[in-house]
Design a protein that fits this description.
265 residues, seven-stranded mixed β-sheet, two-stranded parallel sheet, 11 strands, 30% helix, 23% strand, EC 2.3.-.-, Acyl_CoA_acyltransferase, transferase, GNAT_dom
């Protein structure tokens, strides 16, 4: 299938909204804000009193709808102000993929001492960041994310270029057996410890040994995988200490990757 791309703008904002509603995402406000919205209520009972109880038979979740509406409203303000950037991928004029990118100084836009380090560029010389790659489930495995990533790099080149940074997973690993052991024995069980003794690792020159990331074709990681970036010329520089998993029972490593692109003539 031939895919086309368009950059996020006032003209394409309705497509952005439609796409993120179809994949039940955060609308990429986490990277722009540096945190999730504060919940409308702490417990499910409190949320139900304020917004109505979920109807699972109709896949209606009032709290999620409220959360998405807030995210979309904030994103719209940023798009109109020229502070939010991204690429939409289309199949027959229907949005099926997304890649968020932006200037490192604007991801997140407002920073405080409480902003987590995994929301900030790892290298202080990075001028741009690519933070999110999302593909609608029925279009995964068809090159949508690669198409979006390629378009994002080109958009950055047209905006002046510079150093681009991203933190994809080292490489994916099926989690079918991991989920079976978790379900049967528990996530922190001795059986899980034994299973993870042989968890795949990979040596990356100049970086060191990294662990595979739990992933399947049905739940592709939104950061993308290292090979996608390597194919466009990105080079791994270090293991991402801030983004990699600190938990032995859910292993994954992220890798900091960078690319210098010249601005358009």
């Amino acid at each position: 299938m031939r895919f086309t791309t368009r950059e996020l703008s006032r003209r394409t904002f309705a497509d952005f909204e439609a796409f993120h509603a179809s994949v039940h995402s955060c609308g990429c406000m986490l990277s722009l804000r540096g945190r999730h919205l504060s919940p409308v209520a702490v417990t499910a009972e409190e949320r139900a009193k304020l917004l109505g109880a979920p109807d699972r038979s109709k896949k209606k979740f009032p709290h999620h709808e409220w959360w998405m509406a807030r995210n979309v409203a904030e994103m719209k303000e940023l798009v109109w102000a020229g502070q939010a950037h991204g690429i939409l991928v289309y199949a027959d004029k229907e949005p099926v993929g997304w890649c968020q990118f932006g200037r490192a100084e604007e991801l997140p836009i407002v920073r405080t001492e409480k902003t987590p380090p995994n929301r900030i560029a790892r290298d202080p010389t990075s001028e741009w960041r690519i933070t999110c790659l999302t593909t609608r489930r029925d279009f995964r495995g068809q090159g949508v994310a690669t198409r979006a990533l390629t378009a994002a790099v080109e958009a950055i080149r047209k905006k002046g270029g510079g150093w681009i940074e991203s933190t994809p997973v080292a490489y994916p690993q099926s989690k079918r057996e991991w989920r079976k052991i978790k379900r049967t024995y528990g996530i922190r069980s001795e059986e899980m410890k034994d299973y993870l003794k042989t968890w795949p690792t990979k040596h990356i020159p100049g970086v060191g040994t990294v662990k595979a990331a739990l992933s399947t074709s049905q739940t592709a990681d939104y950061r993308g995988v290292m090979t996608m970036f390597e194919n466009l010329g990105f080079k791994p520089t270090q293991r991402d200490e801030h983004g990699s998993s600190p938990n032995w029972w859910a292993p994954y490593d992220l890798v900091v990757m960078r690319l210098k692109v010249d601005g358009a003539a």
